[in-house]
Every structure is written in C-alpha cells, then in structure tokens.
Design brief:
- There is one protein chain.
- This protein is mainly α.
- The protein has three domains: 40 residues, no CATH class; 34 residues, no CATH class; 50 residues, no CATH class.
- It has eight helices and no strands.
- It is elongated, with a radius of gyration of 18 Å.
Length: 131
C-alpha cells in the first residue's frame, strides 16, 4: 500500500480540502503507530497462501462479512472507485448532496458541501486521474 501511486496525491488533496474547513483527514493505514506495529510483526503470518493483509483481515473478521474478509481482490478503494465517485457517478453523488437533511437541521452548510465536492472533483480529475 505504501507504494500505491494514488495515496500521496489523494492525501495532499484531502489535507488541502480539510484545512479549508478545519478538518484533519488521515488515512488509517498510514498512522505511524499502525506502521510501527506492523513493522514489529514477523513476516510469515502477514501473508497466507499468497493472500495479503492477513492481519487486517483477521482483525476485521468479526466485523465484515466472510465474503469480504476472504476476497482476493483489493480491500482498499482503488482508482476505479475514485473514478466512479468523481466521474461516472457524479450525477448520483450530486443527488446525495442536494436537499441534505443535515443542512435542514443546521448541522452543515449544503452549499459549502457541494462546493467542496466540486473542488475535489476538479482537483482530482486534473491532478490525479490521468486519462
């Protein structure tokens, strides 16, 4: 995961967007305490039959469905899901950001949420999503 080409650009985008609104974004798998713990573990239990992230899978075994825990594909969102959020499904996402109940209750500023999504969409499309 540390060599994933999407993590540094997205972390930078999240940090900039969060700073605008006083929110700190942090990827849980990049927490130094978790990395230090992982580095202290023996290598053998970390990989089983070629399946990666065994420790994460075992930690979440009681929380996630077995089909997710035992899947062979990525267990972390990839560029495909990012493209879905910021390109293919933009209309659907925009629908979720319209007539927000939280805005009606005064918890969030709907216009600010929509503006943040548009900013994030343009930043990610321009900087992170080469065609």
């Amino acid at each position: 995961m540390l060599d994933d080409q999407w993590i540094p650009p997205l972390a930078g985008v999240n940090a900039r967007l969060g700073a605008e609104y006083g929110i700190e974004f942090a990827h849980p798998l990049l927490d130094h305490r978790l990395l230090e713990f992982a580095a202290s573990l023996p290598v053998d239990p970390a990989i089983r039959r070629g399946q990666r992230k065994i420790i994460v899978r075992n930690a979440l075994r009681d929380v996630l469905p077995e089909s997710i825990v035992n899947r062979w594909r990525n267990i972390v969102p990839t560029k495909i899901s990012m493209r879905g959020l910021y390109e293919r499904e933009q209309t659907k996402v925009w629908g979720y950001l319209t007539d927000l109940r939280a805005a009606t209750l005064g918890y969030v500023d709907e216009a600010a949420v929509q503006e943040s999504y548009l900013n994030m969409t343009s930043i990610i499309s321009a900087a992170v999503m080469p065609r």
